[in-house]
Please model this.
Amino acid sequence: MKIGIQAYVTAYGIDPVTLGKAIEDAGFDSYWAPDHAAVPVAPATPLPLPGGRFPDVYGQMVDPFVSLSVMATATTALRLVTGVCLVPERNPLMLAKLVSSLDLFSGGRVIFGAGTGYVPELTEVFTPHHATPWKLTIESIEAMKLLWTNGRGAYDGDLVRFPEVICDPLPVQRPHPPVVLGARPTPVSARRVAAVADGIYLTVVTPEEVAGARAAITAECERIGRDPAEIEISVSVHDPSPRFQREFGEAGADRLVVMLHNHDGKPLPREEWAGRQMENILAPAPSPEETLRSLERVRELAEL
Model:
């Protein structure tokens, strides 16, 4: 079982060079960089979060492509993942260039995690297509894959359109870096993954839900003539101990991803994961030393 780390890089905590080296040296396979370019100060509709607003750290995190680029210079094998990039908030031509450039200079270590976010009024700040974020995201991915594969191309979708353009450099990974959709385990997401992606990133799920997602994705792949073995399932967990590695692995997961922020490194029943993660996110930001201690505790918990 592969195990990755997700953590917030801000101006007030550990730097990406120190964090990246520590994650790689500890034996984790990947770093997942969260993404929020901006957050509303006072959401018109209260969010499904404590206090009805975003935690402070959501507005403090640095751009994921900056943190991943810096981290690439300090590591040699760590997979560099956007976990996940909010595609409707970015122009697909600029995004294609960012991903291919990072893949080039990292030696082919990028995994492009893509999603839409869950706050329509925030998406509206970035795009007039806020009412159809997944349609915009899928068209953007299709357009970017065309550019990554061929180095040039035109795209004429309903929401994404551009004439033939050149997109150089090409990514090292051919025909393109793996694309992972951050989504819920639904029949619709299974169809999307089979059609345009190489994996899915699931959060707040049970092993039973993972097994259902694996079965649904397999069925969709077989329906369109694709090999289901090409699809990788990554699952966000709080406790990466061998018990949960086994349970989620038997359900069809390939990787577990641990949110490091204020993690105490102690085992926890699965039913308490979501609440504990939110408590950790709302707590004061950890110091660099505290983050490194959390990383060591999680490494021990995972028995790496």
About this structure: DSSP finds eleven helices and eleven strands in the chain.
